[in-house]
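ligand=S-adenosylmethionine
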Amino acid sequence: MHGPGDTRAFDRFARVYDALMPPARRAPVEAGLALADRRVDRLLDVAGGPGRASAGLDVPRTVVVDAAPGMCRRALARGREAAVGDAARLPVADESVDAVLVADALHHLPDRDAALRAARAALRPGGVLVVREFDPVTLRGRVVVAAERAVGFGSTFEGPDALATRVERTGLTPTVVDRGFGYTVVGKRER
Ligand SMILES: C[S@@+](CC[C@H](N)C(=O)[O-])C[C@H]1O[C@@H](n2cnc3c(N)ncnc32)[C@H](O)[C@@H]1O
């Protein structure tokens, strides 16, 4: 209904997205980045929208990648680096970044495994993929699932253990950093 990854809707709502969304929690993302075995100098905020979840992180260079051009324009207007791109085909060289962040977005991606594989390829050894998601079995998670269905989004949600298994299948070492309505799973690239 809203196109692959619901990007047509996100493109339309890009201008008001920041005003409608609560600020992202920085602490769990920082806890995830701290699991890297290398300094995090370069981060990709994948399906990053206007860059909400990576704003304010202490990382020298962050690039937002999003499939919705309107979201990238918002990111650029906020003074962020941004590129239009598909999470499954990241516009960067292999082993060129220290961390990849996917915040509140994996459930929208039409091919989550392809996106995780692309993140792994982009990571340097010792780098980390940090995923923030919603747990659909929690009370607030059930509300989010129902709300996204009601507006016609094609979202697919899973809990932290299922995501950790998916991350491990991609060849990354998984850690569940925190659990609850919003949870965090990290995958580290060992080599
Ligand atoms: C709910 S928003 C989350 C944005 C941001 N990460 C945040 O925390 O606010 C989901 C984003 O995923 C993007 N998206 C959906 N499918 C995508 C894809 N295949 N590749 C890149 N971005 C995609 C949408 O355009 C949208 O900006």
